[in-house]
């Protein structure tokens, strides 16, 4: 089974904007997370987990791209700014990573 083309497009777009430091529509002004990506790989992984866990789609395509991006940006902001609290607070389902497959990551 192939991943839906709109989901692939959303992930591609998010990855591009994430790598260039341009997600969050102003929420991340002044936060340079891009320079830390090589050493903060678990941080980057968590950003993508939150984005993907929030992403929704139907037969017409992705229905909430900006909301999923915003939640990921809230995580970045809270990671770099301890005084910032995401609203609403992150729920457990938003922050849990999924396995790659039932038999391992390389199948």
Keyword list:
4 helices; mainly alpha; two-stranded antiparallel sheet; 2 strands; 107 residues; 47% helix
Describe the model:
With 107 residues, the protein is mostly helical. The protein has helices spanning 5-20, 41-54, 65-80, 92-95; strands at 57-58, 61-62. The chain contains 4 helices and 2 strands. Strands 1-2 form a two-stranded antiparallel sheet. β1 and β2 form a beta hairpin. α2 (41-54) runs antiparallel to α3. The mean pLDDT is 93.
User: Radius of gyration over alpha carbons?
Assistant: 14 Å
What's the total count of β strands? 2
Which secondary-structure class do the elements indicate? mainly alpha
Strand order of the largest sheet: 1-2
Straight-line distance between termini: 14 Å
SSE pattern: HHEEHH
Number of helices: 4
The low-confidence parts are none
Shape: globular
Share of residues in strands: under 5%
- Give average pLDDT, whole number: 93
The main pleated sheet reads as: 2 strands, antiparallel
Helicity, in percent? 40-55%
